[in-house]
């Protein structure tokens, strides 16, 4: 007799050697919990296009930087749109899912983000510091990132790169959301150890800061991570809005916090599939 439970294809590169993280452990845990309510199969990102037909939803989780398989990822997105496949996160994201060009848009709109330019003519818009960060617009996982002195900026080949001042930040902090509802925050108290994370209790202004970026984005169903740094003047500045496949660092959470996150993710996924109504802006 056919199962009445929704069928979910869970996309993950379990063998990807992420720095300071173990994708396989996180996805083994998440799939074990999602199986409580969904009929679930796991596949590598390169197999998703061939396998996704017939599933009620495709969950893209720790699939690694798509720049390693850009053509195949673009084909997956095109096929999913043409066939009306429900993808989680939804493919309408304006953050890292679409490249890092959003940092330019947010800078121009006056959002609290590290100032970002992509043209030599705009170098005067950046603060005068000793060192700058140069990163590819389609970069991920620090791939292609370079630190350069100010006198080298005019020599760069502009077009596919972004330039930002190097911030002497106090620490990095990440805010995790399901849909548009805040779930938890973690921070790296030591700037040289990005993935040595600890629980962080955000203030009201901290949460308002993070919520502003999630509300700006066009994702109703999905998981988002707002990465920020605490500048020397105590201001929070956006580092990136990860809305494609953010690593969740669930191993850092207490058992109760992990359970709460999984429960909220299940509700969100059922909402995407259409089994129940989810008020994405206020939770349930």
Mean pLDDT: 91
Strand coverage percent: 15-25%
Termini gap? 33 Å
**Bulk shape:** globular
Radius of gyration: 19 Å
Assembly form of the protein: single chain
Please state the structural category.
alpha/beta
Q: Write down how many β-strands occur, each being a DSSP E stretch of 2 or more residues.
A: 12
Order of helices and strands: EHEHEHEHEEEEEEHEEH
Can you tell me the residue ranges where pLDDT is under 50 for at least 5 consecutive residues? 277-284
Number of helices: 6
Structure description:
- The structure is a single chain.
- The protein is α/β, with parallel strands linked by helices and 284 residues long.
- Helices cover 24% and strands 23% of the residues.
- It is built from 6 helices and 12 strands.
- The protein has helices at 23-34, 48-51, 70-83, 102-108, 204-216, 255-273, and strands at residues 7-11, 39-43, 57-60, 87-88, 131-136, 146-149, 161-165, 171-178, 181-188, 198-199, 223-230, 236-242.
- The strands form 3 sheets. Strands 10-9-8-11-12 form a 5-stranded antiparallel beta sheet. The chain has a 4-stranded parallel beta sheet with strand order 2-1-3-4, covered by helices on one side.
- The longest helix is centred in the C-terminal third of the chain and has 19 residues, at 255-273.
- The two termini are 33 Å apart.
- The relative contact order is 0.16.
- The model is unreliable at 277-284 (pLDDT under 50).
């Amino acid at each position: 007799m056919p199962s009445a439970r929704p069928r979910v294809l869970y996309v993950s590169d379990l063998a990807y050697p992420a720095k300071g993280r173990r994708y396989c452990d996180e996805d083994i845990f998440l799939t074990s919990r999602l199986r409580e309510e969904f009929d679930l199969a796991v596949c590598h990102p390169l197999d998703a296009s061939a396998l996704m037909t017939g599933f009620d939803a495709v969950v893209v989780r720790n699939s690694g930087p798509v720049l390693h398989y850009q053509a195949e990822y673009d084909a997956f997105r095109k096929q999913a749109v043409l066939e009306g496949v429900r993808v989680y996160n939804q493919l309408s994201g304006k953050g890292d899912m679409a490249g890092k060009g959003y940092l330019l848009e947010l800078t121009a709109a006056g959002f609290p983000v590290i100032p970002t330019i992509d043209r030599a003519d705009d170098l005067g818009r950046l603060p005068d510091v000793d060192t700058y960060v140069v990163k590819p617009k389609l970069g991920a996982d620090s791939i292609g990132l370079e630190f350069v002195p100010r006198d080298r900026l005019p020599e760069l080949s502009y077009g596919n790169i972004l330039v930002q001042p190097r911030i002497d930040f106090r620490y990095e902090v990440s805010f995790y959301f399901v849909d548009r509802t805040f779930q938890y925050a973690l921070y790296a108290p030591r700037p040289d150890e990005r993935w040595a994370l600890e629980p962080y209790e955000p203030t009201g202004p901290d949460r308002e800061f993070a919520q502003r970026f999630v509300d700006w984005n066009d994702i109703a169903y999905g998981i988002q991570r707002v990465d920020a740094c605490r500048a020397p003047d105590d201001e929070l500045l956006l580092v990136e809005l990860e809305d494609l496949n953010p690593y969740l660092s669930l191993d850092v959470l207490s058992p109760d916090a992990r359970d709460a996150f999984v429960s909220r993710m299940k509700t969100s996924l059922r909402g995407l599939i259409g089994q129940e109504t989810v008020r994405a802006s206020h939770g349930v």
